């Protein structure tokens, strides 16, 4: 049977979570590191069907069924391989490639690219410890890198002259070009990386597939990466992931920082679960890859404008991937520092405190809304609410989306309206008894929509809604009926007091008319009729 390009199939597996794919048909529960449910391929009452997110496969200990997302779709939906690939491509939002077998020549070429990258890595490593690489070695040691670290991460030096084009003469030019290590110019071939500190970029299996070079002469940009090749796709490659995979599994989370040096320093200082995008361009593919290993992510960015911008982007990108068991948080390194500097000055304990103090995704998204919009004004609040609605719609778990929406409605009610600034009514209203107060606190905390609708009335009561109240177990209609009834009763009490004052005033010769008194009595009658009707509303 002909096969699709392996890169495309790998991209499907990277983009799609097997837990999500299986979970569409099989209710799953997480136990330990795996998810469990009843096998869809044979009848059973006790779950023996295991799904492993990190490795991307399922296995039934009852009937022996085993496979990945492709075989699961094929077997549960009775589809042939091409149809299963098409369905998964639709779910992943990917365009189908040409349906053709991979030629032996292409396989050989890809293997050649890996061999070239490996050979280049060795050459760069050797040069770092020569006179030519003196400046690069001084720089990386000055950043706190030991020789053991340099060896582990295979850091090297690309010289000023064209090393690759000058010494890799036994390799076909087209193959060299395909790796991104060299380019063809007006006067022939030349090395893409020259006078750079070289960081190899590994795939998930630990093979070198590209490079990131840091400037040593102060020129911009500071870092340049291999351009996309057949092996390397920047949007799908995470720096340090090959070293971090086991730690992500053990620690049940990943930490995302901004740069390569930060990622390496974090890993060697006890935060082995740390990775970094290549540059600031965090993508959906990066998040999809991380979520396949674990949906608990801490984004740790610099506390400057660029870091905050990167965090806002990360928040928006991660929303479609969160589930009810996700723990996504945001940590910021303040004072113009980055994780590397924090580790140098304060060590691992200082970095641990920053990680421990990380803000939840819900709090961070709320902070974005409050920072970017003038929520003290009606128009600003509307804009903030529209922003939150748009972002929350990205969440695929509708129950989770609803719960977060309710949380934000509660916050909007409590934080966007200043209760203490409400003018006191001209006529003194009766105090709110403890039972009524607790009932109102319960309603506000459990029915944000009602609280928002009757906010102006509730503001006149001078009640602290930050308190807790007993659970009454009410439904929406009962809660709204209580608010409406209370509002009418207090309005009636105010009118009755006003009527009493004006009647006494007429006796004392004050200038009140019978028409005014009649109007007040009419309003009181209307309220009594409304209260009576409320008794018969279910």
Describe this structure in words.
It is a single chain. By secondary structure, the protein is of the alpha+beta class. The protein has four domains: 87 residues, Zinc finger, CHC2-typedomain (DNA Primase, Chain A, Alpha-Beta Complex); 129 residues, Alpha-Beta Complex (DNA primase DNAg catalytic core, N-terminal domain); 130 residues, Dna Topoisomerase Vi A Subunit, Chain: A, domain 2, CATH 3.40.1360; 116 residues, no CATH class. Helix content is 51%, strand content 12%. The protein contains 22 helices and 16 strands. It has a five-stranded antiparallel beta sheet. A hairpin with a 5-residue loop joins β4 and β5. α3 packs across α4.
CA radius of gyration: 32 Å
Strand order of the largest sheet: 1-2-3-4-5
Tally the helices: what do you get? 22
CATH topology assignment of the largest domain: Dna Topoisomerase Vi A Subunit, Chain: A, domain 2
| Overall body shape | elongated
Query: CATH first level of the largest domain: which class?
Result: Alpha Beta
Amino- and carboxy-terminal Cα gap: 65 Å
Low-pLDDT runs: 419-430
Our count of domains comes out at 4
What value does the average pLDDT take? 86
Largest sheet: 5 strands, antiparallel
Percent strand: 5-15%
Compact overview of the structure:
This protein is α+β, with helices and mostly antiparallel strands. It has 22 helices and 16 strands.
